[in-house]
Amino acid sequence: MTSARAARPWDSLPVLAAIVGSSAIAVLVAQPAQTPSFTAAQASAGRTAYDRSCSGCHRADLQGAFEAPQLSGSNFLSQWGDKTVAELHAYLMASMPPSDPGSPGADTMTNIVAYLLQANGARPGTQALTPQAAVTFRSVLGARPAAAGSVPQPPATPAAGQRGGGGGDAAPAPPPFRKGLAVAGRVKNFVPVTDEMLRKPDPGDWLMFRGNYHGWSHSALKEITSANVGDLELAWVWAMSEGGANQSHPIVHNGVLYLLNPNNIVQALDAKSGNLIWEQRAGPEQRPGYGGLRSFSIAQDKILFAASDARMVALDATTGRLLWETPVGDPAKGHFATSGSIAINGKVLQGLSGCARFTGEGCWISAVDIATGKLAWKFNTIAHAGEPGGDTWGKLTDNFRKGGETWIAGSYDPDLNLTFWGVAQAKPWMPASRGTTVFDAALYAASTVALNVRSRSPTNATPPAVETTDVRNGARCCSDQSSLRLVTSKAASLPILPSEPGIS
Fold first, then answer.
1. Reading across the β-sheet that carries 265-270, which strands appear in turn?
2. pLDDT tens-digit profile of 108-119?
3. pLDDT digits (tens, 9 = 90+) for 153-195
4. With b meaning 16 or more CB within 10 Å and e meaning fewer, what string describes 108-134?
5. What are the φ and ψ backbone dihedral angles of 392, each rounded to 5 degrees?
6. What is the CA radius of gyration of the chain?
7. Can you give 95-110 as a three-state secondary structure string?
8. Is the pTM value of this prediction over 0.85?
9. Is 312:370 a contact under the CB 8 Å cutoff?
């Protein structure tokens, strides 16, 4: 029996082989499952390699996100169940990871395939898996594949000096990630950063992402000019941490340069000499596939940053010592953070990513009290039924409203006490795919929101007032909890055009 389908990279097999393979499948389905063809050591090594190289996109529970498909459960078996280990291995070597295909090496990739077999319900045996194995996934799994989301517990860690199965060109296991204060030191003559200093930064400092609250990315210093810029010479070089995307910026205060590295590592350096003063490894190790940590903050006596696992972390700016850490999302539900942070009037704000699952919770911008580390408030970027903007999702119930991530920290207008944030699209991306129409605005997705950063009790997690500008037509929907109101703003740059249906 034949069926029409689009050509795929792994389909380029001889017709005869396809016919023979399908015949073999017919025989195997009628027989008991074949003897498993991988070892427990291979699966254990494969899990370690998967966590290091694959989980950033496909998630630790193998359920995938965005363009990264599910690797455990019915969807995976629907695509790969009747294909062989050799086919999957060849596909992975040719295309994964996307940034450097085949870089883990042939043996390590074999171990990853063994881990995928185990994660889908296959049991290890005594025979090692090889890249040339012509056995299909379905024949190994038998009639009872693992349920989606079930991930086997890792076997006992091999003793020091030992390696998992596979051998060959597999790289040695990386050393465990060292967490905590890796290098101790003290910043001399530290001056606390006040709210007034953040509002009117000293030109010799660089206290936040893009230099000031308005995001100008402009320095007022005038020593370097068009006449002397050609005379600049290299003073020193500092190698930042490798592993993961690096999209952050430095903070400079009173002659000290602070760096936020991949893997949630923060360093303080003498800006004149380039010498390291202290280094804090707040963890966890950042998985490949995550976007970079895009910004961090300094306020009072603290360095503040949104860690990749959706925590807000505060360090002593003088010593690097961990002061507090506050979860604002749940990595088990797919949450992570790339937005970075902005410190405003005693609070530090951060966004959230990974809101692509049908949890009914939505996505949010959080404000944490800098002095105490307690959650001050959070604003949900997915309007729920019965809330202002909740009627802009058509007939969708809260369980099916998702998306609305905030990928980059907002700016701030001190005169208006408003912070402006861009909110990503609703998901799935197409209205028809998510059960809405083009006339449903799906607030506050695909919008710019202006949040009033007024003082609130740390125990009151009620969202602040919000003004929303829909980026598709400039229409604004404004809410102050129980009532709608129009907020005029000298900082608003988008035109106010006639509203779409559903936008007040």
1. 180-183, 276-281, 265-270, 256-261, 251-253
2. 999 999 999 999
3. 544 333 333 333 333 333 333 445 568 999 999 999 999 999 9
4. bbbbbbbbbbbbbbbbbeeebbbbebe
5. -95, 10
6. 26
7. HCCCCCCCCCCHHHHH
8. no
9. no
